[in-house]
């Protein structure tokens, strides 16, 4: 049955307008400011405020404070709002049975007051038209009219309908309140909105417990439409139960207003990076401006040295604790002072050697131990007789008496190293000497190559001399014998020859096998 089928005006209105007082907000370090915003418009209620900028959520306040930790960039504010003027006429049914359509029949009260299915009634007390219905008030005031319905078992039956003129490409919020009129409804109503024959939003099921008013709504965009046939459809087709009341049906224009501004951060960031050095520690200092370069930069390193560059490196010659002070100023801002404490106390790398004996007899094993200082990760040893060792402590046995240079190198995880050296005298209980050169020229001086020593203490003696091609030039087992520099009765060539000596003194358990070279000159 149709009632008052005329279209209702949608009350075309402009959305809330918001604008920031400035396009750009400037501030310095340690400042906090908010951006003033102007909001204009009438007959609207702001539902929500949404701040956005650089992925940062700023809360729902219209005036959030920005601190010096804010990032420079664009920030925007959006306000969701609804028109307070309802485009639905008689949405609270205070005018009675008018300004809407329904496919249900209007119930005219009878003597028995038993409203049948597929009927509705506009009134202020459901119990007045059906004894099973509750005595309850409407949603608007508790004493006004409501739409009371004993629903149909026919699907997609239009419960309520009204035609409204709309603005193209505009969002609208369609809402209503529903309550069950039975004490407990075994099959509560299942309502859904429809606009211009298209279902909008999900199905809303009424609360099964009576006299509990609950809202349901959906947002709809008008697109190219200039009018909207707004309908409430009941999707419940079960006849038993399915009794409900509607009230405060509304169709409000919905909008989102947005404006943005640029946040200009007029401040600087600084960094001090300390590096541990092999002989001294150093720092690398940087002061960079955000939004603009600093108008002045001054570094005080705490050791009487200064610099005025945005980026600078400095070394500390002495160990200690220093107050490194940065003073800078951004254009139009007060000067800022930052202090960093630099501690350069740490052990510097220093190599040291401890020997078990010096001098040492050739028959004894020498122990070398590091007494170096620092955070050492690697120990190296060179014993002076073409031998190499690694480790904190080493043991070594020399084969030939003489003077040797022991070299010790230590390094740490910072690739720093230090070297220490010591002279070691290796002696023998029985003194002997192997010459390094001789001149067989018949002048009576150094004409023969022989081992000089305590011959009477020699139990065993074997001396051999070879040329550079490995040919034997001379051999003797007599300690007092020597090579006269000839081979096959002819003078040997000038140059270097190689000797091998196997010698054992009295009191020794084993012979000493020695080798070396001798130069023949004339």
Describe the structure.
- The chain has strands at 17-20, 24-28, 37-40, 44-52, 73-83, 105-106, 119-123, 146-150, 157-165, 171-180, 190-195, 198-205, 214-221, 227-234, 243-275, 281-290, 296-300, 306-307, 311-316, 321-329, 335-343, 353-355, 360-361, 366-370, 376-382, 388-390, 393-396, 402-412, 417-427, 432-433, 437-438, 452-453, 458-466, 472-476, 486-487, 490-491, 495-505, 512-520.
- With 522 residues, the chain is an all-beta fold.
- Mean pLDDT is 87; it is low at 1-12.
Number of E strands: 38
Q: Helix amount, in percent?
A: under 10%
Largest sheet data: 11 strands, mixed
Shape from CA axes?
A: elongated
Structural class: mainly beta
Flag low-confidence runs: 1-12
Give the quaternary arrangement of the chains.
single chain
Q: What radius of gyration results from the CA coordinates? A: 54 Å
Number of helices: 0
Strand content: over 45%
N- to C-terminal distance: 145 Å
**For the residues shown, what is the average pLDDT?**
87
């Amino acid at each position: 049955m149709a009632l008052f089928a005329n279209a209702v005006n949608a009350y075309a209105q402009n959305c809330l307008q918001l604008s920031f007082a400035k396009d750009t907000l400037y501030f310095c370090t340690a400042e906090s400011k908010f951006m003033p915003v102007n909001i204009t418009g009438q007959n609207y209620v702001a539902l929500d405020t949404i701040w956005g900028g650089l992925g940062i959520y700023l809360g729902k306040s219209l005036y959030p404070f920005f601190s010096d930790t804010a990032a420079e960039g664009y920030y925007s504010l959006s306000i969701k709002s609804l028109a307070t003027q309802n485009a639905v006429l008689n949405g609270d049914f205070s005018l009675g049975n008018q300004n809407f359509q329904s496919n249900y029949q209007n119930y005219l009260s009878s003597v028995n007051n038993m409203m049948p299915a597929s009927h509705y009634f506009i009134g202020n007390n459901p119990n007045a038209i059906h004894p099973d219905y509750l005595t309850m008030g409407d949603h608007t005031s508790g004493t006004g009219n409501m739409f009371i319905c004993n629903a149909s078992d026919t699907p997609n039956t239009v419960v309520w309908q009204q035609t409204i003129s709309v603005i193209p490409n505009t969002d609208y919020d369609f809402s209503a309140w529903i309550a069950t009129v039975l004490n407990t409804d075994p099959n509560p109503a299942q309502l859904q909105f429809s606009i211009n024959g298209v279902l909008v939003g999900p199905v809303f099921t009424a609360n099964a417990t009576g006299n509990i008013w609950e809202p349901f709504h959906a947002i709809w965009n008008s697109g190219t439409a200039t009018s909207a046939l707004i309908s409430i459809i009941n999707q419940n087709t079960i006849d038993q139960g399915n009794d409900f009341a509607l009230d405060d049906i509304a169709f409000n224009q919905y909008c989102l207003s947005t404006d943005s501004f640029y946040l200009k951060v007029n401040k600087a960031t600084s960094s001090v990076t300390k590096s541990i050095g092999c002989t001294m520690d150093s720092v690398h200092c940087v002061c960079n401006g955000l939004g603009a370069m600093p108008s002045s930069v001054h570094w005080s390193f705490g050791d009487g040295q200064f610099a005025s560059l945005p980026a600078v490196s400095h070394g500390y010659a002495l160990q200690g604790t220093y107050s490194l002070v940065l003073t800078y100023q951004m254009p139009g801002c007060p000067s800022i002072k930052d202090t960093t404490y630099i501690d350069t106390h740490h052990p510097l790398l220093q190599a040291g050697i401890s020997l078990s004996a010096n001098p040492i007899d050739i028959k004894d094993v020498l122990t070398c131990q590091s007494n170096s200082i620092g955070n050492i990760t690697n120990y190296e040893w060179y014993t002076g007789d073409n031998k190499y060792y690694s480790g904190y402590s080493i043991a070594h046995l020399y084969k030939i008496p003489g003077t040797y240079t022991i070299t010790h190198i230590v390094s740490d995880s910072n690739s720093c190293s230090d070297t220490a050296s010591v002279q070691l005298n290796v002696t023998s209980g029985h003194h002997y000497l192997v010459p390094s050169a001789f001149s067989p020229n018949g002048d009576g001086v150094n004409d023969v190559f022989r081992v000089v020593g305590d011959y009477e203490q020699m139990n065993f003696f074997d001396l051999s001399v070879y040329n550079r091609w490995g040919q034997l030039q001379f051999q003797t087992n007599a300690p007092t014998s020597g090579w006269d520099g000839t081979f096959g009765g002819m003078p040997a060539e000038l140059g270097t020859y190689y000797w091998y000596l196997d010698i054992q003194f009295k009191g020794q358990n084993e012979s000493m096998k020695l080798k070396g070279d001798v130069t023949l000159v004339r």
